[in-house]
Design brief:
Blueprint (H helix, E strand, L loop, with lengths): L1 H17 L26 H5 L28 E6 L8 E7 L10 E2 L8 E2 L1 E2 H8 L2 H10 L3 E4 L4 E4 L14 E3 L2 H7 L7 E4 L6 E5 L21 E2 L4 E4 L17 E5 L14 E6 L6 E2 L2 E2 L2 E5 L12 E3 L4 E3 L13 E2 L11 E3 L10 E4 L2 E2 L1 E9 L6 E4 L1 E4 L25 H6 L14
Parallel strand pairs: 12-25
Antiparallel strand pairs: 1-2, 1-5, 3-4, 6-7, 7-26, 8-9, 9-10, 10-25, 11-12, 13-24, 14-24, 15-16, 16-23, 17-22, 18-19, 19-20, 21-22
Length: 437
Amino acid sequence: MRALALLAGFTALSALADSVSISQSPLTTPSQVPNNMVLLPSVEWPTVVTHANNPGVKETDATYTTTTTYAGYFNPDFCYAYHYEATEANRYFYAAVAAGTNHSCSGKTGGTSPDPTNQNLWSGNFMNWAAMQAIDAFRLALTGGYRVVDQASLTYLEKANSDRLDTNYTPLRRLTTNATVTASTPSTMSGFRTRIGALRSQMWFNQNTSASLGGTGVLSLPVVNGLQTDTSATAIPYDPAYQSISMSPSGSTNTTATNSTICSVSGGGEPGCSTATYTCPNGGTASGSTCSAQTNVTACPNSGTTVSYPYFRNSDKKCHSANTDISAAASAPSAAPACTSTSPTPTITNANSSTSRATTCSLVSYSGTPATYTHTTYGQNQVWAVSVRVRVCDSKDIRGDLCTQYPQRLLQAGRTTAAKRQQDPLQPLQLSHPNRR
């Protein structure tokens, strides 16, 4: 009897529930909000800083295998060009051409103007192996990656911030054969070495597996635009327009070439380029970049008693037939070769007597005009720096699992700003929709 009574009670409650309308949104929320899910993952320090691929493996044992596909922000099936600008925050990689068999970029070139369109390329698969931290793979799965730029048609993902160098978690990485180096990097050498530890969102590299990539120093934030320095090394920002790393001389030897090609000043200047010689268009002798002063230089020729243009005028720095300093001459003037300078202005001395019909001028020292320039090609030991920032979801790199675009209302509200990112070295996860482009 008791069981029958309980059953009757449950039936009555069920009928009552069917007649009650239950709100599908929070009662205290004034307007509709999209569904959200909050995750509280356990992300320990080693998980943040360690390599995403082959984690914790020491340098001599970590092997990049071209037949293996490695996870990360880069598309492993593409070869990437590098975009350099004077401002570090504007540098990034972008997909240029499809990779060959086994993710190879050997012999492939590309790029989009104003970048060099024939630059040697980087394997996206190699960049995932060398530059991605475990937290990057975690973010990629949860949120689509750390979006340093997130617009409707433009998305840049940036590597996690490495704030320390610990050989147990972020050891150096290396390539040791010419075939692997040329298939994976712009270099054509037989060795290639990389470092990400303590370099924030940068990756340093050289072309010698036994050459130093610096000490344990940590780059300051924000990362500087120019030379990057830690305790024992200085890295030059890599610019594919000027650094012919595929042709680097051996060891620490740098080679130079002097010619009339002007040192580039676009995008921050050409590293290792300096003015070699100067000319003195207004006379004098060049000493470095300075042309010497000149005194008592004859401005107008003296041909005895018959001189067509014996007088020198201050107004136009020309020789004239009349000794009146006016703008119009009675006869056509001839050039005064030693006194045509307007910067600096020459000092004129008139000596127009019947016995001395010459006019002289004096010119103080002045800056010469560059004539030749010395260009440097750096050796294999030189350290270079790239910003591990990658453009995704463009016309070439369209990954369905990453680039699905959702309505604007699903855009994450708690996106970390650049200023906040600089203050917070661990760059907290953006727990929001994973696939907004």
